[in-house]
């Protein structure tokens, strides 16, 4: 067994102090040219002081150091106030100097690790649990919600109860809190598009560069609450759920929608066609196939151009395309792979299927 450039017997390769067998993962070479396990090395040669090691650095009572441990070791806490910092530069909680090894950051302020706890319940905090409050102190999420969170029915753990709540109380007759988002009106063009009220940061939802209140961000037709996945921007500058958007602005015709589906009694469907939005887009901005406006819910992107979902098909065989079988052609149209090869692929003996293959008459 090799250590410090010397060869050891396997039976001799053990800690010099506790005689624990060692291997390459737990061997520590001491300055006295002996080998130790990690625990004994830390005890003999490791750093000393508060918070280090098991017995090597932990500050112990005199009785413990003398070998007469009585089971009542006191918990030692450093006095962070013994070295006071200049005003405004130290720990906001105790005013002491904060050194690099014990630094905790919150809103450009440095706390001692021992001082970085909730102001109310004194729960130790970290970067996930800490909440900066308007009083320039730090709180856990629960205490922050109690002090600075919204008040009213439905907020908090269950219901915000009166201070004198000591037992069961019937809350069924309590009125529901309705937030009036129009109490502070915004300037023209700056507020919520639905109620025109000011939208503050905590209730902001974005859609097409506009800020909405959380309670206003619902379908204009069925009033279903929306999110970034289910919201559809419509030509009337309102927002809809996908079902209502499809009914009002989606393609009409055979196989589309629920109510507007056209059913052929005779079986002849040649006369049925898709009814796309009639709005013509400015030149170069609409669908390359039909030149109509392409809204967000029906967009298909290809080469920085927007296509309607129903227009996104092969220019020759009208086969529906996707990212796997799409081919951009020099004529600025889109084709499926076989049609692209016929039109623009290599021609000659051995190429294509019927696109120019040279055959021998013999």
List keywords for this structure.
single chain, 362 residues, mainly beta, two-stranded antiparallel ribbon, two-stranded antiparallel sheet, 16 strands, 12% strand, zinc, actinin binding, Znf_LIM
Q: What would the average pLDDT be, to the nearest integer?
A: 75
Structural class: mainly beta
Task: Describe the sheet with the most strands.
Answer: 2 strands, antiparallel
The low-pLDDT segments are 54-74, 157-169, 258-276
The portion of residues assigned to helices is under 10%
**Total beta-strand segments:** 16
Q: How do the SSEs run, as a string of H and E?
A: EEEEHHEEEEHEEEEHEEEEH
InterPro entries: Znf_LIM
Protein name: LIM zinc-binding domain-containing protein
Keywords: LIM domain, Metal-binding, Myogenesis, Nucleus, Repeat, Zinc
Subcellular location: Nucleus
Question: Can you tell me about this structure?
Answer:
The chain has helices at 38-45, 62-65, 141-148, 242-249, 337-344; strands at 2-3, 6-7, 28-29, 35-36, 103-106, 109-112, 131-132, 138-139, 204-207, 210-213, 232-233, 239-240, 299-302, 305-308, 327-328, 334-335. It is mainly beta. The longest helix is centred in the N-terminal third of the chain and has 8 residues, at 38-45. The protein is flat, with a radius of gyration of 37 Å. Residues 54-74, 157-169 and 258-276 have low confidence and may be disordered. Pfam families: LIM (PF00412). It is found in: Nucleus.
Describe, in short, the structure shown.
The chain has 362 residues and is mostly beta strands. The protein is built from five helices and 16 strands. Strand 3 and strand 4 form a beta hairpin.
